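Before drawing any conclusions, I looked closely at one protein's amino acid sequence and its backbone structure tokens, quoted below without any editing.
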Amino acid sequence: MKKRRLLSCALSLSLALTSVSASVFALSFNDVDNDATVSWAKSAITQMTEAGYIKGYEDGTFKPYRAISKMECLLLMSRMLGAEEDDYADIAAAAKSMYSATVAKYNTSYTNELCFLLYTGILTENDLVDYASTANANTELLRYQAAILMAKLLGAGTEAKNFTAAKATYADDAKIPANAKSYVEYVTKQGIMNGMDKDASGNPQFSPTTSLTRAQMATLLARMIDKIDKMTYTGTIDSLDLDNNTISIDRDGDVSDRTLNADTVARQDGKALSL
């Protein structure tokens, strides 16, 4: 079952559910088409660039082996959730109104995108310190950090944080920071990330402190497509049933139930509601 996450509500409620941009033209890149070592990522790169989530360079290259920065990852996450789409313009405007002062502390050119991620509950201000501050924004994103962000992009930050695996999946588990272990296991179970290589005994290794490349990022995003569904869902709250984790939303007399989870975020007039 797909996870649903309430995005916002300003006398209304917006629900994150589904949709993927349809590709209408094919993009190609010299350093992808002519490099056999990138063949494993070619379809993902094509899919994600055609959808407009990740972009190539003006010289016609993609630079698949270039490390992606923390800020670049946040921008991609915001695009995946619709920050640049007309259907989400009202949410983007409300997000900027609510969080522009907060984001202004970070001296960034990406105010709209960061406000959107804060408003939708994907990031907290503590996350901005780690990923968007002057000291960190342009540093390379490491694989264990990508695991944390992908879990949050799935709307499963709380579930991933509390996830417990029967036993460690990776031989280099001891090298994974303690605060990231549950996230790594969670995204592995979800089929989003997997091992980089194997040790001398043939056991998979996660390589947590290796930088994530643009080709790898495109692959992660392609895997996320089937797991992130989004669409705006607007209406007034009719009732709330916490015993069954459901909220009833009235859309002009048509009442329907939506499922809540630990990462559900609802807002009224821009202010967070306590569900």
User: Anything to note?
Assistant: DSSP finds ten helices and nine strands in the chain. The two ends are 22 Å apart (CA to CA). Residues 89-103 form the longest helix (15 residues).
